[in-house]
Specification:
The protein is α+β, with helices and mostly antiparallel strands. The chain is 36% helix and 21% strand.
Length: 622
């Protein structure tokens, strides 16, 4: 039986043999993108190249991308959802198309991993007359040939969502299921936007629907896209071949393939299991929770899976070189929610050991040591954050639970009471909601939101849009702030020393936030020195130029960058100032302004401690 590590490597090797260049996983924390908190798919860091920008490596790419989806937090406890996952991906940037892609992914699954093709089902786009796009019969013909090659009788079915499987193997669905664009449904696509049909592969875990007591299809015909847990999507090949115009949809010349397949689900299927948490990607963490709690996983599935998923995800987020810490805003709020939810379920299991969450983090770092070495490199930071967050939460949780006990006899928990549980006892609204639902109560969420707005403590996280994927914001203000960040890092290293490296960064249209390695509070004089160095570079109207080069060359010219983690063989190096004696030289993907004179006046608004050895600066351009 192949291990998760084997399967990840087999995938990369397979597509390398098909002419693809293996690129490294990007950070979980997007750069210069205020529209999303985390990278949630393999394509997200590659959007500029999907839209036509030339990739420095090749037009055939593949990788395994670290991904996180906060919207799946409430789904943990079924057999296949996880918040953190790896997305196996391959891309054709104007090279091969449907025939090669579908043939290769089918071969990988059935020939390389020996997955039973009789248990695989596929979906395609049924077309839309209003869009002027026909059924994807091209993909159907390819699939028919591939399946018949395995001796499988093929039947394509339409409207299976109404009439059931009907002994079909290939199924047509509309744009709600088998169409992809950045804007979602075709009706939402702006003029000039690219999109296209996709073809998904599902694995049938079994035909006995009686096993799925909560299935809304228990008394109705099941189909591959229902949510009963019987069919698991393991692969999705997107074919971007249309552009929306004023006259409808037109085919484009440079067609794009964007493939994504969840590693955890693929491993589950290849290992003959029906639950991702029983694969070797999770089993060591499960065993550690059993050891800490003295309880058995099979007797406490929901609690175990919440703990295992949430602390694994938290370890990956905090173990990223950008060093996200638990907080009340942005990414930090999600980390806080994950840790505190895990601790609450740990209490249900009777885990007594102090700072027990750090034991889970150590297992995660060990399991992924040779794949994602940043976890072990940053494990002390992760442990410190878990200790601090656990201590903060444990100080108030008993009192908070008692306070909840005082109000849970009400049918509706007021927004004021819900906010008090957050503000006084550190209960995220999601935890209060869970506690209420467990007792058949509901919360006045509108009232809670009003309380939040009044206190202005969670203004960013109140926006649902923060949890959706999006493009990098390349507006002029953002480019100015991003360029200023390069100048600031150079100034910090000059004033404080070369031990200073970037630990995190977030840029909006209004300000930059920058986390960096430094152990003591900056003096007012040091802050003023940094401001002076940056503003001096701005006043000199220095050129900002970039070059593509090898990692070896980037090292030779002393470009700043996390070489071991993030970058491929070729990198883009941005230089600010003269080539011979630059003010700043960094590896970066951009975007930047063309010269520093357009930046305006740089001002540091706040400098504070973020955690042990890490400090945070917030700054603006006036």
């Amino acid at each position: 039986m192949y291990s998760g590590k084997d399967i990840r490597q087999k995938y990369l090797n397979f597509f390398k043999s098909k002419g693809h260049v293996i690129i490294p996983s990007s950070s979980l924390v997007p750069e210069n993108d205020s529209s999303t908190l985390f990278i949630s798919s393999g394509m997200q860091p590659l959007v500029p190249y999907l839209l036509g920008k030339k990739h420095p490596e090749a037009n055939r790419l593949c990788n395994s991308q670290k991904s996180f989806r906060a919207e799946d937090i409430e789904k943990i406890g079924d057999n296949y959802h996880t918040t953190f996952f790896e997305m196996l991906g391959n891309w054709s940037l104007g090279d091969y198309f449907k025939k090669e892609q579908l043939s290769w992914i089918f071969s990988f699954l059935t020939d390389e991993l020996c997955i039973n093709p009789n248990r695989l089902y596929v979906t395609v786009f049924r077309g839309n007359k209003n869009m002027g796009i026909e059924k994807d019969t091209e993909s159907v013909e390819i699939w028919e040939k591939l399946l018949k090659g395995k001796g499988i009788e093929v039947k394509d079915i339409d409207c299976s969502e109404k009439n059931g499987m009907q002994d079909g193997k290939i199924f047509y669905y509309d744009e709600n299921k088998n169409w992809w664009s950045r804007s979602g449904l075709p009706i939402n696509m702006p003029i000039g936007e690219l999109g296209g049909p996709d073809s998904e592969i599902f694995y049938d875990l079994g035909t006995d629907l009686k096993k799925h007591e909560n299935s809304r299809w228990a008394d109705l015909p099941c189909h591959v896209n229902c949510d009963c847990g019987r069919f698991i999507e393991i692969a999705n090949s997107v074919f971007m071949e249309f552009k929306k115009t004023e006259n409808g949809f037109e085919k484009i010349k440079q067609r794009i393939v964007d493939f994504g397949g969840g590693l955890e689900r693929t491993v589950m299927i290849a290992q003959g299991l029906d639950n991702v948490f029983e694969t070797d990607l999770f089993i060591n963490i499960i065993k550690k929770v059993e050891q800490l709690s003295g309880k058995k996983y099979r007797e406490n599935i929901k609690a175990f899976e919440v703990i295992v998923d949430h602390l694994k995800a938290s370890t990956f987020i905090m173990g990223d070189d950008k060093g996200i810490s638990p907080s009340n805003i942005g990414q930090g709020y999600i980390v806080r929610r994950l840790i505190r939810r895990a601790i609450r379920f740990g209490r249900q299991l009777g885990i007594k050991k102090d700072s027990w969450t750090k034991e889970i983090a150590k297992v995660v770092a060990c399991d992924y040591d040779d794949i994602y070495p940043e976890l072990k490199r940053n494990i002390n930071f992760v442990i410190d954050q878990l200790k601090d967050e656990g201590a903060k939460f444990n100080k108030t949780i008993e009192k908070g639970l008692k306070e909840f006990g005082k109000i849970h006899n009400q049918k509706i928990i007021s927004g004021e009471n819900a906010f008090n549980l957050y503000q006084t006892y550190g209960f995220p609204i999601e935890m209060t909601k869970e506690l209420a639902e467990e007792r058949g109560l509901r919360i006045d969420e509108e009232g809670f939101k009003k309380e939040m707005e009044r206190h202005r403590e969670l203004s960013r996280t109140a926006s649902a849009g923060m949890f959706k994927g999006g493009l990098v914001d390349v507006k002029e203000k953002t480019m100015r702030l991003h360029t200023a960040t390069h100048l600031m890092l150079a100034a910090l290293r000059k004033v404080l020393g070369n031990h200073v490296v970037q630990m995190g960064s977030n840029i909006t249209l209004k300000r930059l936030r920058f986390d960096f390695s430094h152990s003591v509070k900056m003096t007012l004089e040091q802050i003023q020195q940094v401001e002076s160095i940056v503003n001096d570079a701005i006043e000199k109207n220095l050129p900002v130029k970039w070059q593509e080069m090898t990692l070896k060359k980037a090292r030779e010219i002393n470009a700043i960058g996390v070489f071991e983690l993030k970058y491929g063989e070729k990198v883009r190096v941005y230089t600010i100032g003269d080539e011979g004696s630059p003010v700043s030289r960094e590896i970066c993907g951009g975007p930047h302004v063309k010269n520093t004179g357009v930046l305006g006046h740089f001002k540091i608004q706040k400098e504070k401690s973020l955690s042990a050895g890490v400090r945070r600066i917030k700054a603006i351009l006036e």
